[in-house]
């Protein structure tokens, strides 16, 4: 149910969430009988309910009903324009259908409790703007628009037959680039198109027809050009990286966000620590791909890689956690189903995280990776009012967050986008 707060221009809107246990994202002890006071889009107070002074103005109340009050979650690796992925899809799918499907994907993501995402390819400036303007409901976006690939690489969609199957339209840059000059030009085109972060394929992929996950792609010199051009705008680079050599190339070139990180070796882990870089392991998509493999739903060319990547990814995450590598939540949703994002937290715990650490991987620390730690990621005064209420205690049952029905309320920037409870039992005006 979308209960968006209505307001007249210039009218202040206060929202008070109460009667719940606050887990604010900072890692401290949960606070019982807590309240969160919101003014318009911003949190102005959080703490013990009775200690929060109320303004002498109209307030909208949300009764948490003894549930758990959490920051809105952050998924650092999604594909909102994908609804599953098969190479042949562009042959049969009208361009407009991708955008209509994206509206559903955005809503599913928000309903799962995810209020911010970093899109890892194909969502464009129009999708981001539509969400910002309130035309369609969804999480706020950082976008990479078009991943960069070498010829024959993970995002080169020309097949061995010579046929090319891809989605294209004005404003969407080309992906393939080779050599320092062409790479520099392509980065500038992606930034011109509105990218907040540049995505680069530094290795092959699991569902690639032309390569394998362990194959490195792009030279160190080409990767350094990407980092340099992106840094001119104060932005970052995210690297699709499975194989160890590609991971090393990326880290030595100045890239600080490693997506997947499947075949980590000790040198990779040392480099992640030395450079204070991040790993986004996307464990959920590997599990979903394995389930598809067992159901006979994957093409033959990706079956062996799928099984190997699933188990190697688990081993690498465990090793990275033990070493102290910074790991945050990313799901690759779009390759897998949308709306199951928080299943990733249970998988991180299975790999060795404590539940509180996993919650921070999807909130506070994810905000740090995105460079938005000053406005999202925790519930505290001055932050944007992104708040989730769940029915079950995530510290004793982290896997319960993976069921969107346990996410009872979703508030983004002070606006209620979801409340699955009876309205008359949830709200009162004073």
In whole angstroms, the N-to-C terminal distance is: 22 Å
Total helix count?
13
* SSE order, one letter for each helix or strand: EEEEEEHHEHEHEHEHEHEHHEHHHEEEHE
Rg on CA atoms, Å: 21 Å
Low-confidence segments, given as residue ranges, are 1-9, 424-430
Mean pLDDT: 91
User: Would you tell me the structural class of the helices and strands?
Assistant: alpha/beta
Main beta-sheet annotation: 9 strands, mixed
Q: Beta fraction of the residues?
A: 15-25%
Morphology: globular
What's the β-strand tally?
Answer: 17
Proportion in helices: 25-40%
Q: What's the oligomerization state?
A: single chain
Which key phrases capture this entry?
17 strands; alpha/beta; nine-stranded mixed sheet; five-stranded parallel sheet; disordered N terminus; 430 residues; disordered C terminus
